[in-house]
């Protein structure tokens, strides 16, 4: 595990790339991007960022990164659900952890990264995430730049009503990371981990928490599965198997843990059973999740 020297670790990994470089980072700033853009041997370069409007307005990401990346031969994608941070070379090795490609991420914050070997199953999952993301061309980038320029001129930074872009694809959730999975639902208080997963504070109102819940990746994953299943129904056993195959983790994920994750999700749905799109049908030996 790497707790310090993350900038050096990332730059060292990238400098050893011979064929490809893939970067997943929720936020991206120009200075650290310039550092990883120096290796001229790399023929295939892919950058995926979260790319929400608010990310650029707040300065969490720099729109200039996308322009530089396109002009330097990168394939650039945005995915508004992205939370992962990964730096992968030649589809063989990767640094995975908490560090975004930002000044704070690579040298300021307390971050953790680990180097892993990439397997064939990992490559399939990575490619699926890329496929579910929106590729940015110069026309789309020009639209983004124009929008951000208008927002700054109108001093409307705090009033962006829509996070997504009109050209952005649906970004259906195919895979989940462990940090996107909710702990058990508490009727009286929101745990700090659940608050972090949902992107709310522990003091947030019930309505805010509910709105965040139906927008979280775990719930969207369930909706996608049910929408594509026969009769828009799936049993607990079927879903636990699908969830087990959908979790991306460096560590082995046990079926018992997956059942706990699914039970947690069921508890959240039951708490808000009168407000959302899923309900339950009880059978003799299992529970069916049903899309209304």
From TrEMBL:
It holds the Pfam family PLDc_2. This is Phospholipase D family protein. It comes from the Bacteria. Residues 78-105 form the PLD phosphodiesterase domain. It comes from Amedibacillus dolichus. PROSITE patterns: PLD.
């Amino acid at each position: 595990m790497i707790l310090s020297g993350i900038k050096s670790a990332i730059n060292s990994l990238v400098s050893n790339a011979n064929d490809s470089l893939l970067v997943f980072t929720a936020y991206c700033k120009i200075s650290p991007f310039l550092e990883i853009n120096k290796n001229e041997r790399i023929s295939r370069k892919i950058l995926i960022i979260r790319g929400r409007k608010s990310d650029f307005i707040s300065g969490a990401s720099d729109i200039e990164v996308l322009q530089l990346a396109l002009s330097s031969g990168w394939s650039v994608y945005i995915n508004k659900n992205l939370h992962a941070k990964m730096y992968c070379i030649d589809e063989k090795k990767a640094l995975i952890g908490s560090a975004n490609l930002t000044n704070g991420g690579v040298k300021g914050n307390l971050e953790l990264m680990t180097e892993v070997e990439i397997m064939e199953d990992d490559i399939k999952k990575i490619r699926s995430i890329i496929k579910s993301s929106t590729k940015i061309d110069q026309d789309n980038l020009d639209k983004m730049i124009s929008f951000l320029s208008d927002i700054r001129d109108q001093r409307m930074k705090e009033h962006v009503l829509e996070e997504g872009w009109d050209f952005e694809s649906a970004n259906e959730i195919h895979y989940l990371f462990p940090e996107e999975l909710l702990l058990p639902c508490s009727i009286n208080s929101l745990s700090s981990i659940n608050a972090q997963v949902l992107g709310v504070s522990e003091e947030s109102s019930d309505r805010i928490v509910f709105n965040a819940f139906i927008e979280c990746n775990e719930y969207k994953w369930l909706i996608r599965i049910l929408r594509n299943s026969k009769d828009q129904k799936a049993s607990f056993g079927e879903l636990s198997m699908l969830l087990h195959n959908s979790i991306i983790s460096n560590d082995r994920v046990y079926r018992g843990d997956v059942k706990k994750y699914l039970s947690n999700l069921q508890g959240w749905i039951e708490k808000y059973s009168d407000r959302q799109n899923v309900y339950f049908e009880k059978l003799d030996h299992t529970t069916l999740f049903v899309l209304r």
